Structures are given as C-alpha cells and as structure tokens.
Amino acid sequence: MAGLIKKQILKHLSRFTKNLSPDKINLSTLKGEGELKNLELDEEVLQNMLDLPTWLAINKVFCNKASIRIPWTKLKTHPICLSLDKVIMEMSTCEEPRNPNGPSPIATASGQSEYGFAEKVVEGITVSVNSIVIRIGAKAFNASFEVSQLRIYSVNANWEHGDLRFTRIQDPQRGEVLTFKEINWQMIRIEADATQSSHLEIMCAPVRLITNQSKIRVTLKRRLKDCNVIATKLVLILDDLLWVLTDSQLKAMVQYAKSLSEAIEKSTEQRKSMAPEPTQSSTVAPSTLQVKTPQTSNAPDLNDAIVKLFSDFDVKETSHHLVISHLDLHICDDIHAKEKGNLLILNF
To answer: What are the sequence ranges of the domains in the chain?
Structure first.
C-alpha cells in the first residue's frame, strides 16, 4: 500500500522536481503524510505554474525539506497541505523574451490535456514556507527578496476561505475557468544594488525596503481545453508603509526601472501578439448551449447565472496593481552631500 501511495505522489510531484526518487520520501500510509528532503525543483514547470512574464526567468530552485499532508478521502473539498522549510530561488531578467509559458504541468503529467480533477486538486494546494530567498540578476542591478512565514492558499471570489469547489468559476460555454489564490507573509525584505559592470550614474546607492504582514491576491484565467493561462490579475496590498529614501537611492530606482523598460515592453508585445482572438469563445458558446439545454429545464437559468458570475469576476487582460492604505515617503539628502538639511515628506 505504501508503495502505491508513493507512486501516486511521484506521478504528480515528479513534474515539479528533478530526480525525485522513492527513497527521498518518508511516508506515513495511514495518516497520508510524507516528507521530502533536498529537492531541486524544475524551473520551467514553475514558470508555467506561476505564469511569469517572459522578461523574467527562473534559473534554479532548491528546497532543503518539505512535508506533505494529503486528505485522500476529501480531495474535492479540502486542500493538500505542503510545508516547506527553506527555499532558495535564483532568477534573471531576459533582454529578449524567452519562450512563452506552456500548459499546466499537472495536466501533462496525468496524461490529459483538459482541465480535470488532477488540475483542480493541485490548484487547491495550500503551501506554507518558513523562509524563502529570491535572488534576481539583471544587467544593471542585482536584487534580493527575503520572505518569512509565507502562505499560499485558495479562496473564493470574495477572498474568503471555504470549500475548494467554490474557489473556481468554470464556464463551459466560454471554455474558460477562473481560480482565486491569496498569498500572505509575515515580513519581506527587499534590496537592490547596482552591478559592478553597469554604467549607471549611481553606483553606490543600495535600495532597501522592509514590509510587514502584506498580501497578494491573484486571479487566474485558464482555457479548459489545454489548461493554458490566458490572463492574470495580481493585486499587491500593503497596509501602512514608511519608506525613507536618500536622493541617490531615488535616482538609482529610476535607473533600475529604465534598465528593465525595454525588456518589459518586448515581453508585453510578445504576449499581445500571441493572445487568442476575442471571437473564439463567442463562437463556441452557441453550440455548447444547444447541446446542453435539452438535458434539464433549469439549464438555461443555471447557464445564465454562471455567465453572469464569470463576467463579474472576469480578467480581460493581464494586469498588476498596487494598493497601499497609507504611505509615508521621506526623501532626504545623502550624508556626504555638500548641502545638508533638505527633507521632503510625502503622505498618501
């Protein structure tokens, strides 16, 4: 029995990891609990799952220890819980857009191309990470993100916890599905510094920011036929934020943003050029409705309700948003500046 369960876990997790073998899994058969150690994760698969923009690439991901709890008899309603100890991720920016993100790894691993049970189970996974370090290398600067006590979990359209069956809105007429995820953390430390080889005017002005108890809300829209992500809406929500910047740090931030602008623009153009025609979903709808309507007299009302609900929360195109409840931004002169004493305080 233990061997069978190991095979089931490997079948779905092997797509996320490299060289995962049964001897790395310590599994409690009755409790549905397992443990994995020293995992190297598959970069391309993670890019597909996270729907990263093509100007950003994952180079390497390592996890020292992971534990998993699987509610075998309640997979439709209760999430699989995955707990990670420490994760280290190395990323880089791309001057030219990389290849577009592919289909869901779970769909391809389970031998199916459509959005099915395996995809629903994996999308509902709750992930907890004690510590995660993300290092990003760019042409003009290096950046690092240190996050503590991060949690990723599924929610309904109103951003509330509940039954996993209500964390998605599936519209067969459109051939699309919306899923909702929330990410929160206890603390994040962000630092960016110019590279030695860069030609920026500001060479010695590292930018630092520390925030507490923030969250990200993500809405994903996928195609049912191949599980590809069509569009993503990401909202970063911060509470009160106090940020003190020197004049040179502010200039450095502007330079860092300029160094990425061309790559981001190319990636955006690539995504627009590969976007599906807007008329595709509307052409499928009539035939789907004609087939399903005779099955029950309540089908039209149910279909109308689904269409309205989907439209209310639909993601038309990929977008990123920042919401800050209160921002205190202090800009001051550098310590070594010839003229001291200048201070600008902005309250939002």
So the answer is: 2-271+291-347
User: How many residues would you count in the chain?
Assistant: 348
Closest CA to 39 of 101, 83, 96: 83
Q: Can you list the pairs that 156-164 forms with residues at least 24 positions away whose Cβ atoms lie under 8 Å?
A: 156/180, 157/309, 157/312, 157/313, 159/217, 163/77, 164/76, 164/77, 164/78, 164/79, 164/120, 164/124
CB-count exposure of residue 6 (10 Å: 0-12, 13-18, 19+): middle
Phi-psi region of 119 (alpha: psi -120 to 50; beta: other; left: phi over 0): alpha
Q: Rounded CA gap, 151 and 62, in Å?
A: 18
Residue 199, burial from CB neighbour count under 10 angstroms (0-12, 13-18, 19+)? exposed
What's the rounded Cα separation, in Å, for the pair 143 and 136? 5
* pLDDT recorded at residue 58: 93
The confidence score (pLDDT) of residue 281 equals 42
Helices 299-313 & 279-292, crossing angle to 10 degrees? 160
pLDDT for the residue numbered 279: 44
Is the C-alpha dihedral spanning 149, 152, 158, 164 positive or negative? negative
- Given this model, what pLDDT does residue 257 score? 87
Question: DSSP state, 110?
Answer: T
Token pair listed for 118: 């395996």
| Single-letter amino acid code for the residue at 252 | A
- What is the predicted pLDDT for the residue at 147? 94
Residue 270, CA distances (Å) to 91, 98, 279 in order: 20, 10, 20
Measure the CA angle with vertex 171, ends 170 and 176; round to 5°.
Answer: 80
Q: How far apart are CA 12 and CA 118, in angstroms?
A: 8
Mean pLDDT per block of 10 residues along the chain (348 residues) reads 54 71 61 80 83 89 89 86 94 90 59 70 89 92 94 94 92 90 93 71 72 90 83 89 85 86 88 65 38 47 83 90 87 66 63
What is residue 291's predicted lDDT score, i.e. its pLDDT? 35
